Amino acid sequence: MKQEEKNKKSREHITACAFAEFAAQGYLGASINAICASGQISKGLLYHYYTDKDALYLTCVAQCFQDLTGYLASHLDAETVTPDQYFDVRLVFFREHPLHQRLFCDTVVNPQPHLKEQISACRKSFDDLNEILLTAILQKERLAAGVSIQDAIWQLRLLEDFINTYLKNSDQETRQPEEHDRLCRQTLHTMLYGLIDQS
Fold first, then answer.
1. pTM of the predicted model, to two decimals?
2. The total number of structural domains that make up the chain
């Protein structure tokens, strides 16, 4: 086996073990010792590829958002997307990738303050795709007088921040990781169609 291929396999093994640890324990509960023990990895080898816990965590977060964004982009068409389609596709992805769901929730609900800028960079493609899809959804609707698409997107982001704060304070993210998607889906429906059935 060539050294380059060996290095790639070692890095992938370390990342897979770390991904499982961060998904199960969150950033704060995860440890380098546990990652090494679960994968029978020496600390020397781990630190050969990753400078510290933060670097390893950010690699996992970047992979999580990259996988999710790629799946959404390949399964949704901006021309025809609806809110339910978006969340249905996201739900299928998370059902197929439960570790991604837990790491995603830990990252968005409980982001580490000292990694704020790096996490924003990791999720930029995801955020950009969400804006494209949300814009496409809103363009099909007649917005209230004085409300622009950018206004609506900004308000939805505020509500998502509120949801994340609620989940963090109620500790829901550790017991029910699917709660985040349920509340986001409900919030988007409320923003678009209101609370009162006027039919």
1. 0.86
2. 1
